[in-house]
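Supplementary Note 2. Why include the ligand at all?

Several targets in our set were suspected to adopt different conformations when bound, so apo predictions alone were not considered sufficient. For every target with a known small-molecule partner we therefore ran a joint prediction. The input for adenosine monophosphate is given below.
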Amino acid sequence: MATAGTRSSSRSRPLYVLGIESTAHTFGVSVVGEEEPFILSDVRRHYRPERGGILPREVASFFSRVAGEAVGEALREAGVGPRDLAGVAVALGPGMGPALRVGATVARALAAAYSKPLIPVNHAVAHIEIARFTTGLLDPLVVYVSGGNTTITTFLEGRYRVFGETLDIALGNLLDTFSREVGIAPPYVVGGRHAVDRCAEGGDYVDGLLPYVVKGQDVSYSGLLTAALRAARRLGRGRLADVCYTLREIAYSAIVEVAERGLAHTGKGQLTLTGGVAASDVLREKLRLMAEARGVDYKPVPKRYAGDNGAMIALTGLLALRSGAPTLEPARAFIRQRWRLDEVEVPWYPSTLG
Ligand code: AMP
Ligand code: MG
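The joint prediction is reproduced in token form.
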């Protein structure tokens, strides 16, 4: 029988991991544990430019200002001291260099100060893991759509393999750039709805207005963006709703088409949707209808966890640590701006927490 202070009693204590997200616009810190309620804190600080897109150096300086208090808040809210942590997880990529460096620096300092292992986490893997954990779909085809990524992926032989992706810009980038250029954003999202969705209200689909491009398993959005901007200029303010509506229908339908082909190709019976654009009600519904027609079990990630957050990094770090995946010496935690999803071994699959 285990008694206090023996090795077996100390191993039976739940593990806690602190996770840091800083790949793009959100500085997120969270503590996740092995027992209910699992996500013990989830602190987020958003960089929101008043005009234009994200400037990497401005994001980095914003992150540097908020990092310390965000870490303190996440630990306090979780009721976990830094010494109680089993490890410090950090998203080392893919993402913007200056932003990634802030998260990596904070993680290195914490891990070194408390002699904790540093757990490298791939941001895309984390979007998938938070979807598997929150939906309970253990082996889904994953539609991952965000500001920087548009990927259809599923697990096969040790890794998440890419079954389709954008050949140029990401879906979120298409929506953000179009709405910024025509002057209806920022803010990009108000009340959970993207500017393109709000602008599409009252609009109609205009046949032949914009190009629909799907190449095999892949989508392409840069031609669509150029054509939509041109159409908006030509048709003027009075018909902007038609352009927004047509743009959205084409952009989302292309995703649904490659997702459907991915299901047929891989034979998976589960489907999930994750990443920032997964908060779109319109896209959620389009995928639901397709999944229903195919008899596939479909659950999108809860909207709260669609966008970037620290909880998905801490969760993935904890899964990695429990599975014996390699950790890093803090000094060797280098960022990887172009770290691809299919480079990462996923030894914990298909298990999750709970
Ligand atoms: P992420 O980097 O994963 O946080 O995703 C950010 C992207 O998600 C940005 O391009 C946002 O415009 C987009 N996004 C956030 N909420 C919504 C929404 N409700 N509908 C469509 N896109 C959204
Ligand atoms: Mg993201």
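Residues 24, 146-147, 172, 175-176, 188-189, 192-194, 275-277, 279-280, 307-308 surround adenosine monophosphate (ligand 1) (CB under 6 Å). The two ends are 25 Å apart (CA to CA). Comparable summaries for the other entries are listed in the accompanying table.
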